[in-house]
């Protein structure tokens, strides 16, 4: 049967069919796929037994409580048999591009959130059935056939519900929330599971007696704003299923950056400069590829006792050469090395980009630097 397709356009909020695709333990799964000896074993991408943070954990490691952004030492304590794997960012981007090609074959309305997740608006798909549920199933199937990796999906009529739904039946699962099912679902949803509500805000809400969506439904939007400030308007719209945000294929990127945690503390100015050289080259290569340069350079320095220092410098025009970027990074380092003589992490980023909308994918991750 041939499906007639209209031009891909931004549909009214009342008509939208939104899919949120989230790859399952993406970085860890790629490593297990490419290294058969790691399959079925608890692995952590990034970090080491003594240093750094976990960038991603396999499901075998998650059973022990290992999570991304967790200090490696903590992860090792929770799971003594944990295997640490150095990340291969270029490989992850290559696989992510393969997955993105599948998305684009169904709709131009794709909003990437990172390398491993994205929103898709399939209200008027370029191919396939008119059903968002069937399209989500087809996309998951095609991802597996092409990459041998599994993905989970959430399907609904707005982004918030699709995002929450994709996490319900992980890994390798799918959840659909229809408009008729949304009120009961939102009423039962714990506030800690509200996407966009951080842990501190969730704890504060729970202490005030607001533990689920049902508890929030008794308040008017004005009362929520009075109690919770700016967040109150967001909570009101979310709990009433009024999330009208469109899927934006030109999601704004405000900065491009890279950072590395080192296996040993760095206290030599020359060694710090060498580390900054590596970061600057990585960033500049991406900027040049995108032809999108920025005016503000920020240096991030983390001390051995985890105190973070950031220093920035802005210019009237964009930094368009690697030597200029490197020289600015050196200057920021030299101006602050007396205050921060030893670091466990260095980071470098560029903001105030020419085109703050050129791609929404995550550029770099806090993997430990290979030595």
From TrEMBL:
Marked site: Substrate discrimination: 27
GO cellular component assignments: cytosol
PROSITE patterns for this protein: UMUC
GO molecular function: damaged DNA binding; DNA-directed DNA polymerase activity; magnesium ion binding
Cofactor binding mode and count: Binds 2 magnesium ions per subunit.
Positions that bind Mg(2+): 22, 116
Cofactors required: Mg(2+)
InterPro entries for the chain: DNA/RNA_pol_sf, DNA_pol_Y-fam_lit_finger_sf, DNA_pol_Y-fam_little_finger, DNA_polymerase-Y, DNApol_IV, PolY_HhH_motif, Rev_trsase/Diguanyl_cyclase, UmuC
EC number: 2.7.7.7
Any one GO biological process: SOS response
Subcellular location: Cytoplasm
Positions annotated as active site in the UniProt record: 117
Domain UmuC: 18-198
Keywords carried by this UniProt record: Cytoplasm, DNA damage, DNA repair, DNA replication, DNA-binding, DNA-directed DNA polymerase, Magnesium, Metal-binding, Mutator protein, Nucleotidyltransferase, Transferase
Primary location group: cytoplasm
Top-level taxon of the source organism: Bacteria
PANTHER family the UniProt entry points to: DNA POLYMERASE KAPPA, DNA REPAIR POLYMERASE UMUC / TRANSFERASE FAMILY MEMBER
Biological function: Poorly processive, error-prone DNA polymerase involved in untargeted mutagenesis. Copies undamaged DNA at stalled replication forks, which arise in vivo from mismatched or misaligned primer ends. These misaligned primers can be extended by PolIV. Exhibits no 3'-5' exonuclease (proofreading) activity. May be involved in translesional synthesis, in conjunction with the beta clamp from PolIII.
HAMAP family in the record: DNApol_IV
Quaternary structure, from the entry: Monomer.
Family affiliation: Belongs to the DNA polymerase type-Y family.
Protein name from the UniProt record: DNA polymerase IV
């Amino acid at each position: 049967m041939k499906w007639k397709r209209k031009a891909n356009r931004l549909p009214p909020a009342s008509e939208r069919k939104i899919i949120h695709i989230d790859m399952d333990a993406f970085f860890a799964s790629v490593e297990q796929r490419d290294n058969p000896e790691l399959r079925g074993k608890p692995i952590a991408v990034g970090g080491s037994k003594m240093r750094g943070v976990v960038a991603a954990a396999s499901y075998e490691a998650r059973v022990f409580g290992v999570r991304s952004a967790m200090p490696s030492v903590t992860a090792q304590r929770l799971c003594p048999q944990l295997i640490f794997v150095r990340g291969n960012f270029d490989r992850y981007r290559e696989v992510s591009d393969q997955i993105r090609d599948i998305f684009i074959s169904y709709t131009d309305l794709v909003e990437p959130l990172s390398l491993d997740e994205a929103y898709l608006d399939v209200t008027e798909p370029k191919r396939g059935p008119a059903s968002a549920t069937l399209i989500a199933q087809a996309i998951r199937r095609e991802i597996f056939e092409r990459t041998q990796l599994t993905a989970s999906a959430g399907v609904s009529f707005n982004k918030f519900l699709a995002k929450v739904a994709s996490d319900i039946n992980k890994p390798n699962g799918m959840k659909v929330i229809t408009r008729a099912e949304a009120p009961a679902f939102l009423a039962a949803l714990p506030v800690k599971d509200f996407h966009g509500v951080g842990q501190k805000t969730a704890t504060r809400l729970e202490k005030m007696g607001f533990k689920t969506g049902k508890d929030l439904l008794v308040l008017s939007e004005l009362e929520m704003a009075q109690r919770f400030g700016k967040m109150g308007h967001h909570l009101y719209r979310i709990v009433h299923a009024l999330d009208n945000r469109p899927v934006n294929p030109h999601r704004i990127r405000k900065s491009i950056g890279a950072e590395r945690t080192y296996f040993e503390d760095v206290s030599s100015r020359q060694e710090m400069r060498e580390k900054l050289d590596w970061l600057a080259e990585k960033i500049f290569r991406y900027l040049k590829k995108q032809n999108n340069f920025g005016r503000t350079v920020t240096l991030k320095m983390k001390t051995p006792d985890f105190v973070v220092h950031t220093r920035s410098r802005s210019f009237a025009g964009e930094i368009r050469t690697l030597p200029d970027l490197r020289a600015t990074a050196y200057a920021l380092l030299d101006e602050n090395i007396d205050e921060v003589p030893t670091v466990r992490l260095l980071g470098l980023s560029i903001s105030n980009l020419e085109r703050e909308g050129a791609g929404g994918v995550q550029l770099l991750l806090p993997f430990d630097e290979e030595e």
